[in-house]
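Self-study notes.
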Amino acid sequence: MKKSVLLSVLLLLLLPRAGGADKFSVELEKILGQQVAFALTSGSGVDTDPLLADWVQKVGERVASVSPRRDILPNFTILGTDAANALAAPGGHIFVTRGLLDAIESDDELAVVLAHETGHHVKRHAYQQVQAQFLFLLGASFIQGKNSQQIRNGLVILNALRTLHKSREHEAQADELGIEFAAKTGYDPGGLIQFFDGFDNRKRSRLEEYFATHPSPEKRIHAAEKNPLVTRPTVEQREAMAEAFRERGLVHSARVVKQGKNPLELPPLPPTDTPERLKNEREEVLRLSEKIAKSLSPTVGSQKIGNVLQTLLLINSQGDLRWLYIASRAYTVQTQVEDLMARTSRVARTSPGTYDALMRYADLPPSHPAAQESVLGREEVLQALGRTEGATTPLLRASRAVTTVLIDLNNRFLRFGNEETWLRYGALEGLLRYAESEMARADKMSGIGWRYLAYARIRRYQERLSELIPENDIARRSLWYDLTQKRFGRAFDGTGRTGDVTVRAALAVELSEDPREVEMGRGGTTWADWVGEKDGIPENVATAIRLLTLDVEREIYFARRDGESYENS
C-alpha cells in the first residue's frame, strides 16, 4: 500500500468522528489504555492492600459518579512507588501512587486528586496526546528531500513544545472539573489548596519551568482561589456539603462548613518540651535528618539535569534499535532513582515530627504503656535515620551514571562506524548496570529505614488516639468508634485501649481476618511489632490510623472551639 493511502486510512481511523463511527476510537482508547496500564503496573507493581485500596476505590467511585462520561467508567489503582504522583491513562485507568497517599491528610484531599484525574478521563486528554504523537511521528516519516532531516528535527522541537503547552492547558481543565466533581459529591473542593499547600513549593529554575508539563503549585492554588465553589459557595452548596460531612461522621466539621470556614484546618500541635536527658538524642535526630537532606541535594540536581535530557531525547532520537533500547533502559533506571530519592527524602522529612510526638510520653511512669512505646519508637526513629543515611551515596552514584548515559545519547557528534558504535553502546550498558547495582544497595538501606520509621509512626498515632479517646469517656469513645467503623468499613470489638484496638482493627482489615483471631498468640508483643510478625504492611497501617487520628483531632478541635462538647481535650 502506498504511504499516502496508508496515511489517509490511519487518519480516518484515528481522528474522532461523529455518530456511531466514534465507537471505534473508544475501543482504540481501551486498547491503548490496557497497554499503558500494563507498562505502569509491571514497572512499579500494584498495592492491593484492602486497607488503602478499598479507601481509594470508595472515594474514587464517589467522585466519578457525577462524571458525564459513561462509555468508559474509570477504575482506580494504587501504584507501589514512593514518588508522590497521580495520573490518568487512556481507557479510564486512574493511578495514584503509594507515596502520594502518604502525603494526603484527609478524604477531601484524596477526593480532589482523584476528581482531577477523572477530569482528564472525561476530556480524553491522555488519548488525545497519544493520538497526536502517533499522527505526528507518522506524518514526519513522510518528509523527504535534501533537508528532510533538519526539517524533521525542527518539527520534533515544535511538537514537543506544543505538547507541553497542551499539557498545561489540560491540567487547568482537569483542576476545574475536579473541583466541580468533588463539590457535587460533598467533598470540600478546598482540599486542592490544602493538598498543594502541604508540599514544599520551591521556586523552579527558568529551564525547569519551561519544560514543566504541569503548572506550578502556586499557579494552581491561585487559580483554585478564583473558583467560587472553593471560596464563595452558596448557602445551598454549603448545606449539601455539610450533610455529606455528617454522613461521614464529621458532625462538628459539618458545622464549620455551614459557617463558611475551612473544615480541613489542622489543630495546632500540642506543645513539646524536650526533657534534659533527651536533648542530645533529639539533636542527633535533627543532625541526621539534616545530613540526609543535604546529602540528597546533589542527587536532586543530577535528576533535574536528567529530566531535561530525557525531554531532549525527542529532538536527538535516532532510528537505531540499539539506541532505543539504551534510551528506554536509561528512562527506567532514572525513574527508579526518582522513586528511591522520594522515599529517602520522606524518611528525613518526617522523622523529627515522629520523634517529637513520641517524646511527649517520655516522662510518664516507666510502667505506663505510652512511656514504653515512646522508648521503642524513639529508638526506631534513630535506626531509620541511621539506615537511610547509608542510601544517599549509592543513590547519587546511580543518578550520575544515568545522567552520563543520557548526555551521551543526546550527543549527535558521537557518530562512529558500526564496530565503534557497538563498543560505545556496550560502555553505556555497563554504566546502566553499575547504576542498577548502586540502586539495589540504596533500595535495601532506605527500605529498612522506611520500615523502622513505619513502626515508630504506628506507635505515635496509637498513643495519640489513646490520649485523645480515654476508655471511660463515653462521648469521645462513641465518636472514635463511629469514625473508625466508617473508615475501615466494618464493625469491631471496641473494648480496650483506644490505640491498641485501632491497630488491631486495621490489621484485621488488612489480613481479612476476624479481630479476635488477629490477636491470638500475640502475648506480650507490642501491637506495632505484631503488625510485622503477622505479615501486615506497617507503612499502610500507619497511613490508615494517621488519617483516622487527623479526623478525630479535627472533630475534637472544632467542638472545643465552639464550646459544644469534648471540653476536656
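Second protein, same conventions, sequence then structure:
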Amino acid sequence: MSGDDRDPQFEELLEFLRDERGFDFTGYKRPSLMRRIGKRMQETSFGADYAAYREYLADNPAEFKHLFDTILINVTSFFRDAPTWDYVAHEIVPRIVAARAPNDPIRVWSTGCSTGEEAYTIAMILAEALGDEGFRSRVKIYATDVDEHALGAGRAAAYTPAQLEPVPAPLRERYFEPQNGSFAFRADLRRNVIFGRHDLLQDPPISRIDLQVSRNTLMYFDADAQQRILGNFHFALRDDGFLFLGKSEVLVARSPLFSAVDLKRRIFAKVPAASARDRAVPLPRLDDENEQDRVERGEDVQLAGFDTSPVAQILVDRGGRLAAANRAARMLFGLGNRDLGSLLQDLELSYRPVELRSQIEHVHAEGHAVTLRDVEWHAGAEVRFLDVIVHPLTSAGGDGIGTAVAFTDVTRYRRLGEALQESKRELEIAYEELQSTVEELETTNEELQSTNEELETTNEELQSTNEELETMNEELQATNEELETINDELQQRSDELNDLNVFLEAVLASFASAVVVVDRELRITAWNDAARELWGLRSSEVHGQHLLNLDIGLPVDKLRSPIRAVLAGDDGKELSLDAVNRRGKTIRVSTRFAPLTSNGSDVRGAIVMMETSDG
C-alpha cells in the first residue's frame, strides 16, 4: 500500500498512538495492522470509523491495553521449528564458542521475545554447550519486546505442562522446577536472561552481540523499516556474529550487510566490510507539531534523551557516588540498578577502561573538561578504543554539583579506516582483472537486465504474500487458542448443567406427592413420577403443554385462579377437588400451590403439589 493510497484517518490514529503512548506503528505493514486494529474496533462496536475510535481512546485510557494486546500477536513456543534449532545447537553455537577465549563473555539478543520461550530455548542450548558454571559466568541473553505484559510473564518464567510439551524430556527435567501447578525455569540460570522493553525502530541497538535472534518479527514491518532494523542488527553484531531469522523473512538475503550461512534455515553472518552508507540507519522523521509537543515536555525530553543516547554516559555526584547511567552505559559496562548510589571507587568502572577518579579530581581543580583520545580497553579477548570526555557539572549559581563522563566507542571507525585501505588495494587488483572481461559482460548484462527486473518484481510480490500469509497464520493460531479455551469452558458448564438436571429429576422423583411445575404461561416444565402414576401421562407427553388443556381426571379449570394468584405474588391456598385417577377410581385430591422464584423475588412460575385420598 503506497503512501498516496493510505487512509488519512487511519494514519492520524497511528500518530495519536505514537504521541500518546510511545508505540510507533507507522513502520508496520498496513494490511495486517489495519486487520488487527479493525478486529478490536469491531469488538468495541466502532466498525471502520477510525476518528470515532481515536476519540474513544482519548476518553478511555484503559482501552489502550486491550488494543495493544490485539495488535501485538504473542505467538511463540519452545524450540519452534525444532530442526532449525538443532542446526543452531550443533553448528552455530559451537562456532561461537570456538571463536571466544575460555573466559570471554557470550552475548545474545532475542527481539520480539514475547513471553520468553525463545530466550529460554537459547539459554538451554548454551547451558548444554558450556555447562552450568560456564553459562552463569559468561552468558548474557537480552530478551526484548514492546509488550510489557508479555515481558512480565517472561521474567516470571513459569509455564504450564502444555507449553513445555515441545521441550525434550531430558531438558525439561534438567532446567524446569515445579512451582504452584506450573514449571519455572531454574532461578540460578534465569538471572542471566535479562528482559526489557525495546522498540526496534526508536531505541538504539544493544552492542557486541554474538547471536542475534529475531524470528518472525521483521515481517510485521514495511520494507523501509526492515532496512533500518537490519542496519541496527548489523551494528549490534560482532564482526563474526550470526543473525537468526524466521522462516518467512528473506529480505536480508538481498542485503549487502549479511551473507547467508544457511538460507533454508534463515541463518546469516555479518559482512564486516559493508559500507557505512549501507549501515546507516535513518531516524524516524517527526513532523513540526510532534516536535513542538516534545519541546514543551522539556524535562521528560532531557531524561529520555540522556537514557536513549547511543553514547554511553554516567553521572557522578560530588560525594563520589554513581548518580545515573544511561542505557548504553549499562549495557557497555554491565551496570544495574543496584549499582546506582554506590561509591565510584567500589566499581570496576572507576579504573577500567581508564582511571576516572584522578581525572574527576583534575577536572574540578581546573574547572574545565578533559578529553582522553583512543583509550585502549580490553573487553575480554577483544580490544576496543574509546574517546572519554570528563566534564564538570555546575548548578545555576556556579557551584560544582558533580561530574559527567561520556564514553564514545571509536573502534568501528578505526576498523573502517583499515578496511577501507584494504578494500582500495583489493579494488585496484580487481579493476585490472575486470577490465579484460567488461566487454563480454556488456552484452550479457543487457540480456539479463530485463529478466532480472521481472524476477525482482515477482520475488517482491511473493515475499509480501508469504509474510502476509505467515501473519494471518499466527492470527488464526491465536484465535484457535481462544476458541479452544471457550470450548472447554462451555463443555464444563454443559457438564454442570447435566449434573444439575439429573439432581433435580432425582429430587422430584423422591416426592411421594404428584408435583407439576409450570412457567408464567402455565406451560408444564416439570412432571414427576408420582404425577405420571396418578394421571397416566409420561413427562415427555406433557412437557411444554398448557396445564389447563390437559385431558385428565382432574378439573384443571379450577386451578387457574390459585395459580394466577401465586404468579401475582399472593400466598398459595390449598384446594380440595374430586377427581378420577388413571384407573377410573374416584379420589379426593388436596392441591397446594407455591411460587417458583429466582433471586428470592422474581416469580418465574408456579409449583403445584397434589396429594390424594379415597373419595
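Instructor comment on the second fold: The CA atoms of residues 201 and 458 lie 28 Å apart.
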